[in-house]
Amino acid sequence: MTTYTLISRPPTPRPAVGEEGGPATTVSGPDGVDVVTFGCRLNAYESEAIRARASADGLADAVVFNTCAVTNEAVRQARQAIRKARRERPDARLIVTGCAAQIDPAAFAAMPEVDLVLGNAEKAAPGALLDTSTRVRVNDIMSIKETAGHLIAGLKDRARAYVEVQNGCDHRCTFCIIPYGRGNSRSAPAGEVVEQVRRLSAEGYNEVVLTGVDVTSWGADLPGQPTLGQLVGRILRMVPDLPRLRLSSIDAAEIDPDLFKLLETEPRLMPYLHLSLQAGDNLVLKRMKRRHSREDALKLVSEVRRVRPDTAFGADLIAGFPTESDEAFENTLKLVEEAGLAFLHVFPYSARPGTPAARMPPVKGPVIKDRARRLREAGQAGLERHLQRQVGRTLLGLVEREGVARAEDFTEIAFDPALGGPAPQGQIAAFRVVGHDGTRVIAELAAQA
Q1: Most confidently modeled range among 13-17, 57-61, 184-188, 322-326
Q2: What is the pTM of this model?
Q3: 265 or 22, which is more confident?
Q4: Cα–Cα distance for residue pair 41/39, rounded to 1 Å
Q5: SS3 (DSSP) at 432
Q6: pLDDT value at position 22?
Q7: CA torsion, points 394, 397, 400, 405, in degrees to nearest 10?
Q8: So what's the pLDDT on residue 18?
Q9: Which of 121, 142, 220, 337 has the most CB atoms in a 10 Å sphere around its CB?
Q10: pLDDT value of position 417
């Protein structure tokens, strides 16, 4: 089984600064089934559920494309990959699913290369990949009321595990098409989440990441409307042996008091927040239909740093949103330094048909490209400042692979595994930081934690 990642914009942030796309990775599998993943980290881990389902159902000689709709480029690359796959594997069964397929199934059904189009609600259901009774099976995503159990079962990489606690989004930001691909917000019940985390901890995972489309909205659709902070507190109380619990990308407008208190008092909740900011200008934020202001973002960062000084911050930012003036862009650019953002995901604005922003006066393409470049440069400078502050410190890092670990604040750690003794993958070790290379710290292995 092969999983490719062609584009990477994860709810879980990465240390590379401001890149919309990511490199393709190819791993050969024995059964002739490939899963091609586009878009966010949530899509990547849902692809693991698709992969497991394909294996359980006995699917063979097939390629499954788990698409993204966040930008036109993501859709274009998916279509390009489908055509290439048909040329290279003329007899394989080509299956298209994911957000782009959910939003515009007819466009993929019209491609002669495609054998089956599946919606997001159907993509990992038992037997769905084998069913040949119809060529297009895409239901109304807005009618889905529950988070699918097969997608919250604890998707794993080699070092950490991910639990999908929520899917969909109730907000309607003017630039975003994703609610039409994912549906309205749906929360996994707290008991199921706790049980999954407990099981993963018992299997030896030292870090679990809570992930979703709009994680901070967790609980709003459940009886009693519990908050994300209450869920996190319950996990930490009921799974005392779990060393590290991490949150994926969160909405700054929805951090509840319980979650804020846990950031202050619970060292097992990792000190990293990746904020869905999108802009740093109030008029642009209003036109985006965001629910926070520039001042709200700066206040949040300040308050968190006051109670948890070691917290690092990242953010999603859009360059060249329609009507964005030079002054408005400068406000976003200045926010990077004012908020001390260390990890940026920068996205050149891409108009999505059917969204209100697509009807607003656009910014010229070369201007968008230049603004994205300047934001990435500011992000790189912010990352370097953050890395410099780590020099001389001892960090606890989760070993992700040979020679690479991840600190509590999400800083990537590079080390020589030949020095200081063994550092098994998935284990937590102490590292003495001796320098940095602009993207990660360079450290010496000190000891197992």
Answers
A1: 322-326
A2: 0.85
A3: 265
A4: 7
A5: strand
A6: 42
A7: -20
A8: 32
A9: 121
A10: 83
3-state class (DSSP) for residue 104 = coil
3-class secondary structure, 437: coil
CA–CA dist 151, 148 (Å, integer): 5
Rounded-to-integer distance, Cα 139 and Cα 119, Å: 6
What's the rounded Cα separation, in Å, for the pair 211 and 14? 14
Say if residues 305 and 272 touch (Cβ distance below 8 Å). Answer: no
Question: How far, in Å, CA of 191 to CA of 235, rounded?
Answer: 9
CA distance linking residue 214 with residue 233, whole number of Å: 19
Q: Residue for token digits 């284990």?
A: 427
Instruction: Show the beta-strand stretches assigned E in 119-253.
Output: 136-137, 155-156, 161-164, 166-167, 186-187, 207-211, 244-247
Residue matched to tokens 């109730």:
170
Residue 114 burial (C-beta neighbours within 10 Å; 0-12, 13-18, 19+): buried
Range scoring the smallest mean pLDDT among 35-49, 77-91, 281-295, 378-392: 35-49
Q: What is the pLDDT of residues 152-166, one digit of tens each?
A: 455 666 788 888 899
Residue type, 75: V
Enter the tokens of residue 356.
């209100």
Residue, of 269 and 57, whose pLDDT is higher: 269
Q: Are 200 and 161 in contact (CB under 8 A)?
A: yes
